[in-house]
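Notebook p. 47: complex prediction with 2-acetamido-2-deoxy-beta-D-glucopyranose.
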Amino acid sequence: MEFPADLVHAGANVEYKRPVLSVLKIITTTLVQMSNIVSIDLLAAATNPLYFQQLVTTNASNPTTIELLAYNNTFATDVLGSNATARQLYNLPWQAFHEMGTYNKPTNSIYVTSNWNGSSDNPINVTVIDLGNNYSISSTGYADLAEANGGTNWYPPGFQAGNGTYPPRLLFCDEGDFYNYSKLVSVDPVTGESEVVVSSFLGRNFSSVNDVRQHPVTGDIWFTDAQYGFFQNFRPVPTIPNQVYRFSPTTGEIQVVADGFDQSNGLEFSPDLKILYVTDTGAQHFSPNQSRPATIYAFDIIEEKTLANRRTFAYADNGFPDGIHTDLDGNVWAGCGDGLHVWNPEGILLGKIWVGVTSNNFAFLPGAVMVFSNAQLWIVEGIKAVGREICRDFGVCQDGQTY
Ligand SMILES: *[C@@H]1O[C@H](CO)[C@@H](O)[C@H](O)[C@H]1NC(C)=O
Ligand SMILES: *[C@@H]1O[C@H](CO)[C@@H](O)[C@H](O)[C@H]1NC(C)=O
Ligand SMILES: *[C@@H]1O[C@H](CO)[C@@H](O)[C@H](O)[C@H]1NC(C)=O
Ligand SMILES: *[C@@H]1O[C@H](CO)[C@@H](O)[C@H](O)[C@H]1NC(C)=O
Ligand SMILES: *[C@@H]1O[C@H](CO)[C@@H](O)[C@H](O)[C@H]1NC(C)=O
Ligand SMILES: *[C@@H]1O[C@H](CO)[C@@H](O)[C@H](O)[C@H]1NC(C)=O
Ligand SMILES: *[C@@H]1O[C@H](CO)[C@@H](O)[C@H](O)[C@H]1NC(C)=O
Ligand SMILES: *[C@@H]1O[C@H](CO)[C@@H](O)[C@H](O)[C@H]1NC(C)=O
Ligand SMILES: *[C@@H]1O[C@H](CO)[C@@H](O)[C@H](O)[C@H]1NC(C)=O
Ligand SMILES: CC(=O)N[C@H]1CO[C@H](CO)[C@@H](O)[C@@H]1O
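Predicted complex, structure tokens below:
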């Protein structure tokens, strides 16, 4: 089945194929690379534009090395700690590790979405990383999910913390295609059952919903919309601005809480739930343009429902900040053009987990962080930083932590 020609703009070569619900392949190869923490001399860098090129000698077109770069001493002492070790888990012939990175406790697995391969003959997969089986991976798909991107855990209305009979579901951003709405889709990863949660703004189509978080106190779903399905030739011309939405799954109430972005993309709460961070990946449309935004904005969250006091939090020196998470110290981590960047709550760059290639997203595990660099998967183990959602997702909580 082909998309009608009038839906497809010049250059596109897209055909429709129904997503499959099946495990495609299981792989268990592991490459190991250890790494030490390298201190950056910021004063030397300030007057030598070639400083970083001379520092990092890895051949980035064939990446096998991961470097831990401290731009501030606390990156080594407090964020990673002296025990941190880094290694590559996979370097595959396809881009299995792109977005999401959500842990599901019943399956003890991390769910990652693969990158768009250029044809709906080969729809975006969900890559399942089994933490109970040496990080072995398999690829799958779900009935209601056309082209998945970001995601999170979702505790549906009525969920009681610790109620093991009703585990959280995975919540996927589905970018949609020429036939299917862009929407949020909930999946039970044990049964494979899927369900549409929201597929329009009061009847208006989304462009390509990109990433999503659930407010752990109100249960509201906060998500972003961007235009990547259009840029990648599998969605029609956008008919709505790029915005951040708040949706109540209990009442259906939906509200635009922020606009004015080039491409609103990743979003994340501060650990005290007082701030929302939103990444703008405007530097990438049909092609890259580094004079457009590669920026993280911060907003104050007012009464758990609306946003105020938009400000520029950080600009990434390499690529653009895409997926974003916070740790319990309030540091802000984002996947960028050369790996993960970590800023303190004042927006000062503390360090990088450098892999030399675009790393769109990542996942915190207890004591570790996994980095998704599309064809490559990396892990840094033995870290001190604790992801904001480790307590909720893994049940590994700090004293007194309630969400
Ligand atoms: C995990 O996989 C790697 C690479 O295949 C292998 O060297 C290692 O022994 C495995 N570990 C376990 C516990 O199976
Ligand atoms: C980098 O790796 C690519 C791909 O393996 C290779 O073609 C190229 O020669 C390498 N460049 C250098 C400077 O090693
Ligand atoms: C480093 O790891 C060892 C072994 O797991 C542990 O005993 C020690 O407390 C850790 N040190 C730090 C500074 O985290
Ligand atoms: C699509 O996937 C195939 C293998 O599954 C790979 O050879 C090809 O390079 C991929 N293309 C893109 C654009 O990712
Ligand atoms: C889906 O996974 C299979 C292998 O499991 C791979 O060959 C294919 O290229 C993947 N497609 C995408 C779009 O990631
Ligand atoms: C768990 O939650 C489900 C759904 O709300 C409910 O039906 C069930 O009674 C709850 N079980 C316990 C033990 O609270
Ligand atoms: C909204 O999306 C649906 C599903 O792709 C499509 O059938 C419909 O024509 C779209 N509506 C508009 C106004 O673009
Ligand atoms: C890059 O983006 C800027 C700002 O939108 C625009 O003025 C410029 O023409 C673009 N450059 C190219 C090469 O497209
Ligand atoms: C280094 O980071 C620490 C912790 O975030 C911060 O207090 C300090 O001001 C930073 N130092 C510099 C020189 O930016
Ligand atoms: C995942 C999904 O909703 N797929 C649907 C996309 O649209 C085609 C054509 O209408 C349907 O056949 C698929 O089921």
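Notes: Residues 1-34 have pLDDT under 50 and may be disordered. The first strand starts at residue 37 and ends at 39.
Next step: compare against the earlier run before touching the bench.
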